[in-house]
Structure formats: C-alpha cells, structure tokens
Structure to design on (367 residues):
C-alpha cells in the first residue's frame, strides 16, 4: 500500500526520502508523529528512529549498544514497556530472545540511572520499541502508534472475513470515487468499506475515536499539541457530506453488524442499509461507484462453486450499473474470469498474505 501511503504523507506536507514496498521514510519530529498518527488512513504504524548501527553481530553486542542510550530521558521508570521486531540475522533463531535482550538493555539502563524500572510485557498500551535488525545493520525505533492504526475503534462487530480498515482505505483511494459521489457497497459485510469512505467524505480523521497512542507514554509528551490537532480536526469535519452511501447484504446478521459499527462511529444516520440480495441493491442516478468484496474461496474446499456468483455480479453491473464505475476486490483471478466484463485497470494489493486485485470495470449506460 506504499503508493497510497505516499499520497497521504505528501498531502500532509512531508517529502518522502525513500519509498519501499512496506513503508515511507521521512524526516520529522516527535510532534510530527502525533499528526501522522491522527491522519494517516493506510498506515499501520509510525516508527520514530532513535539510532542505527552498521555493525551488530550478535545479541550481546546489541545489548551493549542499546545500554549506552539515555532511556531514562524517554521512558518513565514507573511505566510499561514492550518490544516488537523484524529480524533477519544468523545468530537469532527466536526473535523473542532478541526482544528480551532489547528489553533487558533498556530496563537495566533505567534502573541504573533512577533506581527503579518499568514493567514489561507483550501489551502495546504503553511505551513500545521496535527493533529492525537485518544482517549486521540494526535500527531502534519508538513505535509512536502502539496498537495498529488500522484499529480505528468503530468496529465492535466483525463479519466472517473482516477486512482491515487500512486496506479498505487503500482500496477506496485506488478507485475513481471521490467525496461528493455515491458509494454503493452490495454484499457489505460488517461495513468497513462504507465506513472508511464516509469518514473520507466527512474529512474526519481515521483516529478520531482513538484515545491511546504509543507517543502518549513517553516523557515530554506534548499534550497541548495533541489537543490542538484534535480541535483543529473537529472544526474541519463535514457533517452532511454529499452523495449517497448504500449498504446491502442478504445476511441480516451482517447488516446488523454494519449498523452497529456505524452507530459506534456516529454515522449510522448517513448510510442507507437494506437486507436484500445484491441484485436488488438500489442504484441512484449520478456519479458513483459499485464496490464488491465477494468471497474468493480462501476458506472453502471448492472455490470453483463461486463462479456463478461472480457471473451474477457481472450481469448486475452490466444491467443496472450503467454510467457508474464497477469494482471487484478478489484474491482469485480465476473466479474473476466469470465476471464477463473487460477490466479497465487492475490494482495489486495484499489482504494479509493473500495477493489480491482490485478490478475496475467501466460501465457504459445502455444504448
């Protein structure tokens, strides 16, 4: 999702130094991290690099290197510490061992400096450090997000195969949809795609429901800056966005789940919910998109049984979607052949470890 994350970073006024498949590097301050955490829709975490070393050959050398850093100036001695990592090093077979050595170095340093030590564990609701160690190159970061930014706080009910909120945001950014246009989501599941689109249309920050971030547990956390960012964001919210937001599903439990999530987000009054077969989804006049996220057989013994469903989706878009743009997000390109329509674009995205495609179909009005 890096291309969409880069769009967001640049829109916030930052210049990328490097773009990788899994992230963007920029220069900034810890106060910049507050703004990034609050506004980024396609990011999972904002890491703030503290130090790097070009030659770390084993866990003990890692411990000695980290022990020289003034952790007592960053982490409260009565706080809580957790460590995560991404490691590719021949001396480390269990990443948990390396994580423990990081924790030991930090805790020992704080105890030596203050006489006290923070608690530690696997929870991400305190100070979080991230270790990147590839061959002999090591970097240590503050994870200023804590829990993944994809956890917006509105999804209290999940569907059978819930989509991550950050992926839903990237899918919408990859379409031709824009605020002011209709967003029609048959087979809506728990409503993640509709909710992400509605928050975009309202210019509402994705983290507006969150009240806990990793940066809050650091010494020197500037609460005034945080409150100012939240206050400014509230003033920019569009309460009654243009365009219709339509969510349908034949499963009453899924529609109930989507409605409950929308209520948690405070936007249920802006979405038109209906329990029906997708072929009965109302299609209003005007610009908009039809967006499908059908099952693609990842959890089925016989995904070939889904070919009739994909064929029906194609027939529905062709007959009822004239003048709109249609989209299908799927991890099975063989099933996509049954849609029977020519794609105008294919965007590659990953749903967890599953390589998927967002297929775009230009739907012409009937002659």
């Amino acid at each position: 999702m890096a291309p969409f994350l880069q769009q967001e970073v640049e829109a916030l006024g930052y210049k990328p130094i490097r773009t990788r498949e899994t992230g963007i590097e920029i220069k900034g301050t810890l106060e910049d991290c507050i703004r990034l955490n609050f506004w980024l829709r396609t990011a999972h975490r904002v890491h703030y690099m503290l130090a790097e070393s070009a030659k770390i050959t084993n866990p003990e050398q890692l411990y000695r290197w980290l022990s020289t850093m003034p952790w007592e100036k960053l982490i409260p001695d009565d706080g809580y510490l957790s460590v995560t990592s991404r490691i590719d090093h021949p001396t480390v077979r269990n990443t948990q061992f390396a994580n423990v050595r990081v924790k030991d170095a930090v805790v020992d340093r704080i105890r030596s400096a203050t006489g006290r030590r923070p608690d530690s564990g696997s929870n991400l609701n305190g100070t979080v450090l991230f270790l990147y160690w590839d061959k002999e190159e090591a970097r240590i970061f503050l994870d200023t997000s804590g829990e993944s930014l994809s956890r917006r706080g509105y999804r209290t009910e999940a569907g059978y195969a819930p989509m991550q909120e950050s992926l839903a945001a990237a899918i919408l950014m990859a379409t031709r949809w824009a605020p002011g246009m209709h967003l029609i989501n048959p087979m809506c599941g728990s409503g993640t795609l509709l909710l992400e689109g509605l928050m975009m249309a309202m210019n509402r920050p994705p983290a507006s429901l969150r009240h806990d971030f990793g940066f809050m547990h650091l010494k020197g956390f500037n609460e005034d800056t945080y409150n100012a960012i939240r206050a400014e964001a509230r003033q920019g919210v569009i309460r009654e966005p243009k365009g219709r937001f339509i969510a349908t599903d034949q499963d009453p439990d899924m529609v109930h789940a989507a409605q409950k999530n929308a209520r948690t987000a405070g936007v249920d009054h802006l979405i038109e919910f209906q329990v029906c077969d997708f072929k009965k989804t109302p299609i209003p006049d005007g610009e908009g998109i039809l967006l499908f996220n059908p099952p693609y057989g990842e959890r089925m013994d016989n995904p070939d049984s889904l070919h009739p469903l994909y064929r029906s989706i194609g027939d529905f878009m062709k007959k009822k979607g004239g003048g709109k743009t249609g989209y299908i997000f799927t991890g099975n390109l063989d099933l996509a052949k049954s849609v029977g329509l020519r794609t105008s674009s294919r965007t590659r995205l990953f749903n967890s470890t599953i390589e998927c495609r967002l297929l775009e179909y230009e739907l012409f009005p009937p002659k």
Summary: The two ends are 38 Å apart (CA to CA).
